[in-house]
Amino acid sequence: MKILRWGFIGCGEVVERKSGPAFSEVEGSGVAAVMSRNRDKARSYAERHDIRKWYTDAQQLIDDPDVNAVYIATPPSSHAPYAIMAMRAGKPVYVEKPLAATYDDCARINRVSEQTGVPCFVAYYRRYLPYFQRVKDILDSGRIGKTVSVAVRFATPPRQLDYDRPESLPWRLQPDISGGGYFYDLAPHQMDLLQHLFGVIIEARGICANRGALYQPEDSVAAIFEFEDGLPGSGSWSFVGHESAREDRIQVVGTLGELSFSVFSYAPIVLHTSQGTETIRVDNPTYVQYPIVKTVIEHLQGRAVCQCTSVAATPTNWVLDRILGKI
User: Fold this and answer.
1) Which residues make Cβ contacts (< 8 Å) with residue 98, sequence separation at least 6?
2) What sign for the dihedral angle of Cα 148, 99, 188, 204?
């Protein structure tokens, strides 16, 4: 069995809470080195997680002979450069979502993956969580009949840091780094899930606005989209709404019923049919990326197939860019 020795590029909050420990919990996998441009952060993460090597330069980590696979957990604008560097070094890549900050950068990653024959996987981990597998099972069972419409509804109040001065705003609100505003950070999970459940989106259009005037990027988005089988969908996102309007829901309407579920809060799944209303609670693992990390590792070991490749993830960036009018 191939032993995976991972190098982490980036060791921030996502790595701490959602993904990092999972790499050492899967058989035949461990972490050999970590990298952050912040020396103290890299050293602290390495010491706290008993990792022998740490770097402040990504190329040094990629060139390390003890590293044979790379996890990229940086803001989206650096995903493409780091992924391409790793693949050209012959080292498989697992990259945080979205795959890149633009659809064009996704295409660059895919070209290099094809040229080198080195795989690139993307952290759309919700596909592999028990919660969303239950959603898919219900849809596949035909309990709500033929799906006739899909609607995404998301609203949240501003965060305290959204009121900071422009030079102090988080990277998620800097379009040249994130690809957009909070929409580009959160909507990828929703759009990937929808395409996992209903097929590829072949058309998308959006109206974007900045209603709160707290920062430069859009804070309010409305969109319509069409799946490959003709299914219509719509979405609305507000990141400056009142607390009373807070919402995290996808509603699926069928000829025999309705299914609704959340994407970020994992609120109980609600199924309405002629038999009544059913509320379904599903627990997820402590480290939510564990199921997909396990699948990626087993794919690289020849024991499984992970469907969250860079090619599969690229349509999501196309949809985001279409909604924001970037392409």
Assistant:
1) 76, 79, 122, 179, 184, 188, 313, 316, 317, 320
2) negative
Retrieve residue 134's tokens: 């239950």
Residue with tokens 């602290």: 44
With beta carbons less than 8 A apart as the criterion, state whether 7 and 71 touch: yes
Q: What is the DSSP secondary structure assignment for residue 16, as one 8-state letter?
A: I
pLDDT mean values, one per 10 residues, the chain (327 residues): 94 89 94 96 95 97 98 97 98 98 98 98 98 98 98 97 85 94 98 98 98 96 98 98 97 98 98 97 95 98 97 98 96
Task: Give the pLDDT confidence score for residue 58 in this predicted structure.
Answer: 97
d(CA 254, CA 237): 23
Compute the distance between CA of residue 327 and CA of residue 316 in angstroms, rounded to an integer: 13
Return the structure tokens found at 58: 């990504």
Q: What is the pLDDT of residues 77-107, one digit of tens each?
A: 999 999 999 999 999 999 999 999 999 999 9
Strands 69-72, 93-95: pairing is parallel
Helix (H) or strand (E) holding 253: strand 247-254
Specify the pTM.
0.95
Q: What is the dihedral of CA 249, 314, 200, 94, to 10 degrees?
A: -70
Contacts of 286 (CB under 8 A, 6+ apart): none
| Sequence-ordered alpha helix ranges (H) in the chain | 13-14, 22-25, 39-48, 58-63, 79-88, 103-116, 130-141, 175-178, 182-198, 290-300, 310-323
- In sign, the C-alpha dihedral spanning 152, 290, 71, 83 is negative
